[in-house]
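Data availability (excerpt). The following record was deposited with the supplementary files.
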Amino acid sequence: MSTATLIIGAVVIVAILIVAAWLYSSRQRGQTQQRSGQLRERFGSEYDRTVAEKGDTRSAERELTARQKRLSSFHIKALDADEGKRFSDEWQAIKASFVDDPSAAVRDAEALLGRVMDARGYPTGDFEQRSADISVDHSTALEHFRSAHEISLRNAKGEANTEDLRQAVINDHDLFAELIGEPVATPVATEVSPDTEEVAVAAR
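Predicted structure:
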């Protein structure tokens, strides 16, 4: 076999390897972009928040994928009609209590959310763990849930006013409504009029 033939053969092999590597790389990029798109769609603003927290996209996507895997190991179920009605009634009582004791209403709303999560099958954990678990299926309402929790923490330090507390209850209701499957909008009473009728402010 001549030297020229060997050179041509080597060039052909190298060209095939280059093309194969390019095709593999393109396929990997396509799969990565598809996975990123799916994660962005599912987690919404939580995707951007996690990227900012982790410092890079790859680490953030590993975290979000891990959340999905963790949650898939639990049996998350819908509430039956009786459970939904009971929780809705509890929420109405909390809403009505806001006028007399806004701070207690905020604490009760957060506690009720915890009981609803338990009933749905979400695992027990601290606020950050529960937020991570909730983000898999309820990323839109999660931002409001985090905001409500921050207000609750400020309230514990005496740094939240009545309007802040009203907003906390409204924000908690966004997640509550998703978890029990009811419309998001709900009135939160903020004061009592001269004829003792509550003046309500629409949630959204």
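Summary of structural features: Strands lie at 187-192, 198-202.
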